[in-house]
Write a structure and sequence with these properties.
The protein is an alpha/beta fold. It has a single domain, classed as 3-Layer(aba) Sandwich (Rossmann fold), CATH 3.40.50. 31% of the residues lie in helices and 26% in strands. It has 5 helices and 7 strands. A 7-stranded mixed β-sheet has the order 1-7-6-2-5-4-3. β3 (64-68) and β4 (72-77) form a beta hairpin. The longest helix has 15 residues, at 140-154. The two termini are 15 Å apart.
Length: 155
């Protein structure tokens, strides 16, 4: 599935719609270049979970921020990770397999630690305020989730 947004507000609203389909325990990978809108989408998802989007900031310098909303939200940013071993030491897998919604920016840094099932959203810049989002689901749970999201954003 693919989607275009034409403003920060549209990206935030899309994040809220995604959040409306989450039941807890989901792993969502956010990939894309610097400035592609990963944190903006994370803010929208947080807003949809009842978390003040203004509280959500990129966790680049601390690797992980946790927020309480309708579901616990774990927001990883692995930009500064040099190797997958760096994150393995932190007990990262304990976070992944919990009842929390887990967002991971820069998931390619995980390499062999990448979970087997997830929803991946790749963001890319098309123009100044235009973003292209490509959704990929891996695993039956995430294929069903993507179908629900697709139905929700089609309207």
């Amino acid at each position: 599935m693919e989607k275009l947004t034409f403003s920060v507000n549209q990206t935030l609203k899309l994040g809220k719609k995604i959040a409306g389909n989450l039941s807890g325990g989901e792993i969502i990978l956010l990939s894309g270049s610097l400035g592609a809108g990963k944190t903006v989408l994370a803010k929208g998802i947080a807003g949809g979970l009842g978390i003040d989007k203004n509280d959500v900031v990129s966790p680049t310098f601390v690797l992980l921020r946790v927020y309480q909303g309708r579901h616990l939200l774990q927001h990883f940013d692995l930009y500064r990770i040099k190797s997958a071993d760096d994150i393995f030491i932190l007990g990262y897998q304990e976070y992944l397999y919990s009842d929390a919604v887990t967002l991971i920016e820069w998931p390619q840094r995980l390499k062999f630690l990448l979970p087997k099932e997830f929803l991946k959203i790749k963001l890319s810049i098309k123009a100044k305020n235009q973003r292209h989002l490509k959704f990929t689901a891996k695993g039956p749970r995430y294929k069903k989730l993507l179908e629900r999201i697709h139905e929700d954003i089609r309207d």
